[in-house]
Task: inverse folding
């Protein structure tokens, strides 16, 4: 692996579903000579794109897991992460962004900035990842890359600037004009591998000059030298413009826009040049960890190979030789045989086989130095774990992970399936922090939880295909919550005298609604409850939050304040106060008008204009609230908020209402109170379940 | 309580009466470009939202985001006009009422009343409360709009939804004898309520052109907030 980190790029490719991410990744691998034949994502050859390593992904034409791969371009080492485009899998996108230094944001030249581009953009902002944009599909009918660049400004708030102009669009798309070099690039040969540089066609010269002026104007904000050159009217070198644009990209204040068509093999090579010219190397990025031995203080990490090692496991895969752990090394170097410590559990591990990945093929390496992405075999860990040299105890900052909103019961078909199912669940929960599983003690069923119907569906399919675990699934269940709506007092005495030492504890105070999940406030004065029993009280109250007294859903948004109580010198104990707290919670909770809350999803539908009215109707019929609708060319975007419980089977309904021409994305928005009529239905259902 | 207080402060209550607004068939706010038609229409719609009714705001000029921004700004102006309001209460109220507002942004070439009909029908189908008011901003009343207005009249009757329009007038066009701009004059019978906004020094004068007994009354508005400054008869 290259040790000169200036020549390393760790980049991701992020975009809306069906924008051509996988096709673009495939072309990059072809031009960098990592593969020697191009396969289409849903190709007739039945092979599928190399980046989609899972069988299921090939079949569905979607990218589920991030396949990491590396390639070389003009003596630079590019580590490439292909990220999933569907919202249900955004944890994958987030995990990828965590370890990346830069992103190529792909936009469709016809559909422009779509709903998920907005989600992905927010994630890039959260992790402060610099980006360049690539407007793909310029060969498509209705392609308008300039409009898309405008949408980057208006919809995403990017300071976008065109770096290229198209030479012809739609079926006449031939190549691009480079506005820095002021040359025309054409892509010839069977796979566009021969780049021909020519003069700019006469009819496009004026447009190119205007666009270059705009580019230089935008770039000049990031370079005094460029501003001076403009004022002095001296020659502006390519290097000067590139340096200015690079500074703009690094500070996330400028987004250069490139264009082309991955499918038609147009303008991928200039995009690779742009990755090298404008996206940061590991040396340009400031990374931090927290020092667990020093009050969790932030520590800056340096891409120095001789310093203690800090590496983050960001993805796990089950390969034929055991668990494959993808790592990003931030500091130091992992070499074969090194001893590392997993800072989550303190366990020591020995680095065995080290590899770097090329989708499903692997290449063995001796070391993974700082700044690189690689993978390690034979280590048992969870995604998000930090590996460090034994002399330090650092952890990379926790990743933002949401709670699951939907659950499904699964029952294995036979004994063999039962064993395989537990293996699969064990793997999936390690791989994906938003996928959770537990056994319902009352029904004995195994429950899986996730971020959406499709999310769980894909895992059930993977169980079947990869682990040969046939399972039957129950109806999806929504993760309801309980909360209180008003303040209520409690005053509960726990007293038991059944021979031997008795139990005594009195707890008084009040419960009230709050924004946090649970808050405990101690206002006991004068030793009415001795200090040593206060943690027991808190534990007693906190324990009640897991299963609400109303319908046994988890309780959230409750602040418990205790301000009075009593104890007995002999009979009081921690156990007695825990029991008193439980009784007190029950007493206060039922008086505080408890209600049920349900997950509300942000649903964005993109539909041809003619179906706008009927799509809005579909939302209305599902207790949804339409926030707005916007026409964009031939398509309308409808933004709405809909309860998750109403969204089951929505894709089928939407398809039939729009002749299959509309698509939608869905992500968790918030928890809201369930209307009375629905609450009554839930209560009834719950009672019937109990009887059964 | 806050809802009621805010509606009492609304310029619409003083000028036309809030109950009166939703009882109309067609209403129009007229003015030259840039005087504040849309902002005034937003104030009209806000009175209905505060009255716990649903509204639809259709714009042929503004994006969905801009429509939302206009409502947020209108609500803030209304809250500020009261003096001190608990910010948390105001935010909660905004969260509540904004759920009843649907902003629809059309391209003026593809504006189609059939899509609105489909949408309104779905309320009936799902047995949901119908929107009380629809604002349509951006129609060019210099064009022949007979067909569109007739279809909208049909919607008004079928779904009992009052429809308010922004109607742009021009500086160089002389009004009719009774002071009515030409854009309204030719369609006067279709509208039962109309209000004309005209700049007056550093203020805006709102003149009721048509509204039963209120006709010809005039009011003065602050151009920054569209709140009532004083009443002039």
Result:
């Amino acid at each position: 692996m290259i040790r000169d980190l200036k020549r390393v790029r760790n980049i991701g490719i992020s975009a809306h579903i069906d924008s051509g991410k996988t096709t673009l990744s495939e072309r990059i691998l072809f031009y960098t000579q990592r593969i020697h034949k191009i396969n289409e994502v849903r190709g007739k050859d039945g092979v599928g794109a190399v980046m989609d390593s899972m069988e299921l992904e090939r079949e569905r034409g979607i990218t589920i897991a991030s396949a990491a791969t590396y390639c070389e371009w003009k003596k630079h080492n590019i580590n490439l992460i292909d990220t999933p485009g569907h919202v249900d899998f955004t944890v994958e996108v987030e995990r990828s962004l965590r370890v990346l230094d830069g992103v190529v944001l792909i936009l469709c030249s016809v559909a422009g900035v779509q709903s998920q581009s907005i989600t992905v953009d927010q994630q890039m902002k959260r992790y402060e990842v610099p980006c360049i944009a690539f407007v793909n599909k310029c060969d498509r009918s209705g392609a308008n890359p300039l409009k898309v660049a405008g949408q980057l400004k208006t919809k995403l708030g990017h300071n976008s600037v065109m770096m290229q102009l198209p030479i012809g669009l739609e079926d006449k798309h031939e190549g691009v004009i480079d506005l820095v070099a002021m040359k025309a690039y054409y892509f010839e040969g069977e796979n566009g591998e021969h780049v021909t540089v020519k003069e700019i066609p006469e009819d496009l010269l004026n447009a190119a000059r205007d666009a270059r002026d705009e580019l230089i104007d935008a770039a000049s904000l990031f370079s005094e030298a460029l501003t001076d050159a403009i004022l002095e009217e001296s020659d502006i070198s390519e290097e000067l413009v590139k340096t200015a644009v690079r500074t703009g990209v690094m500070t996330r204040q400028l987004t250069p826009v490139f264009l082309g068509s991955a499918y038609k093999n147009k303008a991928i090579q200039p995009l690779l040049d742009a990755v090298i010219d404008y996206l940061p190397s590991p040396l340009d990025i400031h990374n931090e960890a927290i020092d667990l031995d020093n009050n969790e203080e932030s520590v800056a990490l340096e891409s120095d190979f001789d310093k203690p090692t800090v590496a983050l496991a960001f993805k796990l895969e089950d390969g034929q030789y055991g668990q494959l752990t993808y790592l990003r090394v931030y500091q130091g170097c992992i070499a074969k045989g090194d001893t590392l410590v997993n800072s989550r559990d303190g366990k020591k591990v020995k680095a065995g086989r080290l590899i770097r990945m090329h989708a499903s093929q692997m290449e063995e390496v001796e070391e993974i130095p700082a700044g690189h992405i690689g993978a390690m075999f034979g280590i048992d860990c969870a995604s998000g774990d930090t590996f460090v040299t034994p002399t330090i105890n650092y952890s990379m900052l926790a990743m933002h992970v949401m709670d699951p909103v939907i659950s499904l019961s699964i029952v294995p078909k036979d004994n063999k399936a039962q064993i395989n199912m537990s293996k699969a669940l064990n793997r999936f929960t390690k791989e994906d922090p938003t996928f959770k599983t537990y056994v319902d003690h009352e029904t004995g069923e195994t429950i899986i939880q996730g971020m959406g119907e499709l999310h769980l569906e894909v895992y059930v399919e993977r169980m079947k295909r990869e682990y040969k675990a046939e399972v039957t699934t129950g109806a999806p269940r929504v993760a309801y919550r309980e909360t209180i709506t008003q303040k209520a007092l409690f005053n509960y005495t726990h007293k038991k005298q059944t021979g031997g030492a008795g139990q005594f504890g009195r707890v008084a105070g009040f419960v009230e609604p709050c924004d946090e999940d649970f808050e405990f406030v101690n206002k006991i004065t004068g030793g009415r409850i001795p200090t040593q029993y206060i943690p027991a009280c808190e534990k007693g109250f906190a324990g009640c939050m897991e299963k609400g007294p109303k319908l046994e859903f988890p309780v959230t948004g409750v602040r418990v304040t205790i301000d009075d109580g009593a104890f007995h010198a002999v009979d009081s104990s921690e156990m007695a106060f825990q029991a008193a707290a439980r009784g007190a919670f029950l007493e206060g909770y039922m008086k505080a008008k408890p209600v049920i809350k349900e997950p509300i999803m942000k649903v964005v539908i993109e539909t041809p204009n003619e179906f706008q009215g009927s799509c809005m109707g579909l939302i209305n019929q599902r207790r949804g609230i339409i926030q707005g609708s916007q026409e964009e060319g031939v398509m309308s975007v409808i933004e709405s908020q809909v309860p998750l419980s109403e969204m089951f089977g929505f894709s089928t309904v939407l398809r039939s209402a729009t002749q299959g021409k509309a698509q939608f994305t869905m992500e968790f928005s918030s928890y809201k109170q369930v209307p009375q009529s629905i609450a009554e239905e839930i209560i009834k259902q719950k009672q019937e379940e109990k009887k059964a | 309580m806050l809802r009621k207080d805010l509606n009492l402060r609304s310029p619409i209550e003083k000028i036309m009466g809030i109950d009166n607004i939703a009882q109309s068939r067609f209403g129009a706010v007229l003015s030259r470009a840039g005087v504040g038609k849309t902002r005034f229409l937003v104030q009209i719609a806000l009175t209905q939202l505060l009255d716990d009714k649903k509204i639809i705001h259709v714009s042929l000029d503004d994006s969905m985001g801009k429509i939302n921004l206009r409502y947020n700004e209108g609500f803030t102006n209304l809250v500020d006009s009261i003096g001190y309001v608990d910010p948390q209460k105001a935010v909660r109220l905004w969260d509540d009422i904004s759920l009843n507002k649907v902003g629809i942004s059309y391209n003026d070439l593809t504006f189609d009343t059939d899509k609105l009909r489909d949408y309104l029908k779905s309320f009936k189908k799902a047995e949901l409360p119908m929107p009380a008011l629809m604002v349509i901003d951006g129609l060019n009343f210099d064009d022949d709009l007979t067909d569109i207005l007739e279809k909208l009249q049909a919607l008004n009757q079928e779904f009992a939804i009052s429809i308010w329009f922004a109607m742009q007038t021009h500086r160089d066009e002389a009004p009719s004898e009774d002071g009515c701009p030409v854009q309204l004059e030719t369609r006067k019978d279709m509208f039962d309520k109309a209000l004309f906004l005209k700049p007056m020094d550093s203020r805006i004068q709102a003149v009721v052109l048509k509204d039963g007994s209120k006709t010809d009354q005039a009011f003065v508005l602050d151009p920054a907030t569209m709140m009532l400054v004083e009443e002039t008869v």
Notes: The CA atoms of residues 208 and 215 of chain B lie 5 Å apart. The longest strand of chain B covers residues 193-200. Chain B has one domain: 2-232. Chain B has nine helices and nine strands.
